[in-house]
Write a structure and sequence with these properties.
Bound molecules: glutathione
CATH class of the largest domain: Mainly Alpha
Order of helices and strands: EHEHEEHHHEHHHHE
Shape: globular
Distance between the termini: 37 Å
CATH topology of the largest domain: Glutathione S-transferase Yfyf (Class Pi), Chain A, domain 2
Number of domains: 2
Strand content: 5-15%
Number of strands: 6
Largest sheet: 4 strands, mixed
Helix content: 40-55%
CATH architecture of the largest domain: Up-down Bundle
Strand order of the largest sheet: 2-1-3-4
Number of helices: 9
């Protein structure tokens, strides 16, 4: 019983990272297939999965195709109740679903103005009002999650869950653009990005070079360090 996960470039594809973590972190058996997100072959690489057209796309062992990260998350959680992808406590589970759904639907400014990259830390990035609002909202959601779960640090709901999966690329944006957040939020972001699975993903990402560099900014950069 093996899942097939179609994903794009590790360095830049935030949704691919989410899809990969939701299998990798919960020890679900899968094989990753890389599509040419930046080399231009993506449409043909995914053509046999139509109408799926984005990464990640998951193929279940019996052949069913599931696109959209939220749908993949719910499908995997339903199929593997023993893996505890969602928190087991109902109030925490409902809250975790809320945080994931709001992430999937929101934070447009952060997502468009701070494209995920795992290569370096931009220096002097000017934070727009819209990005500031997204950061405030993210921190309000984290505070709410901590209140519901009774935690002050570490995974949002005590044990690593899909909520942490969904916010890992958000953490990469916060760290990668040195965005202004509270010390608690920064510590949580660093925890997410120091996870061995994420470090492995980042190490593999660094083996690919890009010319021209996607999402390049006219800013100084310093080495990635947590
Ligand atoms: N709503 C989708 C978003 C997936 C997505 O936008 N993936 C990007 C890569 S990070 C993609 O496939 N982009 C290619 C394109 O838009 O043509 C999900 O939740 O999975």
């Amino acid at each position: 019983m093996t899942y097939t996960l179609y994903i794009g470039d590790r360095m830049y594809s935030s949704w691919s990272l989410r899809g990969w973590l939701m299998l990798e972190k919960f020890s679900l058996p899968f094989e990753a297939r890389f599509v040419g997100l930046y080399s231009g072959t993506m449409a043909q690489d995914l053509a046999h999965l139509a109408p799926a057209r984005l990464v990640p796309t998951l193929v279940l062992p019996e052949g069913t195709v599931v696109a959209e990260t939220m749908a993949m998350a719910e499908t995997l959680a339903e199929r593997h109740p023993e893996a505890d992808l969602w928190p087991s406590d109902p109030a925490q589970r409902a809250t975790a679903r809320w945080l994931c759904a709001e992430m999937a639907a929101g934070f447009g400014a952060l997502r468009s103005q701070c494209s995920m990259q795992l290569s370096h830390i931009w220096q002097g990035f000017e934070v727009s009002e819209a990005v500031r609002k997204d950061l405030d909202r993210i921190e309000a959601l984290f505070a709410h999650a901590r209140k519901v779960s009774g935690t002050t640090s570490g995974p949002l709901f005590g044990r690593y869950s899909l909520a942490d999966v969904f916010y890992t690329p958000v953490a990469a944006r916060i760290i990668g653009y040195d965005l202004p957040v509270t010390e608690e939020t920064r510590a949580y972001c660093k925890d997410l990005l120091s996870d061995p699975a994420v470090l492995h993903w980042q190490e593999e990402a660094r083996k690919v070079t890009y010319d021209p560099e996607p999402y390049a900014l006219d800013l100084e950069r310093r080495p990635w360090a947590l």
